[in-house]
Amino acid sequence: MKKLSPVSWDDFVKRLRELGFEGPFRGGKHPKMRKEKLTLIIPNKHEGDLGIGFLTRLLRQAGISKEEWLGKNAQSGFSIVATVMIMMILALFAAVAVSLVTTGAGIGLQEEQGDAAFYIAEGGLEKASYYIINQKDSACTADETCACDGLTGADFTNVSLGAGTFTVTSPDSDQKYITTATLNTGIDAIQTTIPVSSDPQGVYATSGRIMIDREVIEYTFLTATTFEGCKRGVAGTTAASHASGTRVGQKQCVITSTGAISTNPLVSSIQRKVSTVAELQEGWSVGAVAPLPTNHLNSIYCTDSNNCWAVGNAGIIIRWNGTSWNNVTSPTNRDLNSVFMIDTNGDGVADDGWAVGDPGGVNAQRPLTLRWNGTSWTAWDNSLLNENQTLRSVYCVATGDCWAVGDPGGAANERPFILYWNNTLLTWTRKNDGVTNENQTLNSVYCTANDDCWAVGNVSGGEVI
């Protein structure tokens, strides 16, 4: 009679498919396979071969007998083996029979404790994931990657949980903080194969998530030229088209948690391992700048991962080109408080944009609005307004549909101070009819359409505008 034996992940999945299961399907910490109404959670591929105990538990959950798993020939020689077993049983002494009963009980206990060790390992994984997501350690303020390095010490080594312990690790080899690959052709929003200009194997994780522009993409495996089996627009992002040459970023680490129970009479320790991918924050933060001029930055906007703009005090404007930040000539020395850039043709490069800030010394810069024409910044002539007010925020729904808000003025129709870009007249105009007459500052504005915008600011009589 054939016996169960350890099996590789690939062979395990292949055999389940032969038995009518579909998948594996990604989602959550572990992949799943399905057969009719039954969903079976299986280990991740990088966790290695499945031992006999773990395999037995999974088969039980899947409703698969040992005979079904082993195939048609599992019963060959059954009669001969049965006869031999009967003879052996008749020849056994009572003491040996007692020993068999005791051993059988130990094996049953081993299976139960194997399940318990698995759930203990899951508990360690939850703690590690929570630690990374809520990393508050001041040592990590300058480099988010140290969150994975922090999975050491007494908080993550031999930690007691239930009847056992767990230990969490994230080796350097499982930590990926890279943006080396670029798209070798443009891609649309539905492609599931992502072509890149350099071999990602051995550089990026064998499976996990990547970020292109603002879209997070989940992939299942790599080839020498592609990311394969991609699920687009995950983690709350939107699937989108991306231009050739756009960088492919990955900031993640693989967390492995080992659950252990050491009270089994047959073995020194029963262990189970589970792993997950922890995705780290992807983006830019603004504040004090170095080695660029030391003026503080107040606002940032990116049209894709290779094209970002930041503005700040004393009129500073800097631009990210995919490799480095560089100063851009500014037409003002006044503080700039907000920037919004527009890519009109989908190539990732801003062709239009606005920056707003503190009012200038002449009527034309009261209020102060700067416009990017795809080549240079110019101070827009606002002589017709001649409003000596600070603008705090700007937002554009489209090239000809922009809003700006800021500090209140002296007249009713300047309280609060709201401007709209009139693309027909090519001028900023007031959009407050004077009904609200709220003498408070508006600090930010956001629009989902040209007739659906919100602005917020300082308190007025207990409410927030």
Describe this structure in words.
By secondary structure, the chain is of the alpha+beta class. 18% of the residues lie in helices and 33% in strands. The protein has helices at 9-18, 52-62, 66-70, 78-91, 94-133, 146-149; strands spanning 22-25, 32-35, 38-41, 159-161, 164-169, 175-178, 194-195, 208-212, 215-219, 221-222, 226-228, 231-234, 250-261, 270-279, 297-304, 307-312, 317-320, 325-327, 336-342, 352-357, 368-372, 377-379, 391-398, 401-406, 417-422, 427-430, 442-449, 452-457, 459-460, 463-464. Strands 4, 5, 6, 13 and 14 form a five-stranded antiparallel beta sheet that branches. Strand 13 and strand 14 form a beta hairpin. It is elongated, with a radius of gyration of 31 Å. The N and C termini lie far apart (78 Å). Residues 73-84 and 93-106 have low confidence and may be disordered.
Topology (elements, then pairings):
Elements: H1 9-18, E1 22-25, E2 32-35, E3 38-41, H2 52-62, H3 66-70, H4 78-91, H5 94-133, H6 146-149, E4 159-161, E5 164-169, E6 175-178, E7 194-195, E8 208-212, E9 215-219, E10 221-222, E11 226-228, E12 231-234, E13 250-261, E14 270-279, E15 297-304, E16 307-312, E17 317-320, E18 325-327, E19 336-342, E20 352-357, E21 368-372, E22 377-379, E23 391-398, E24 401-406, E25 417-422, E26 427-430, E27 442-449, E28 452-457, E29 459-460, E30 463-464
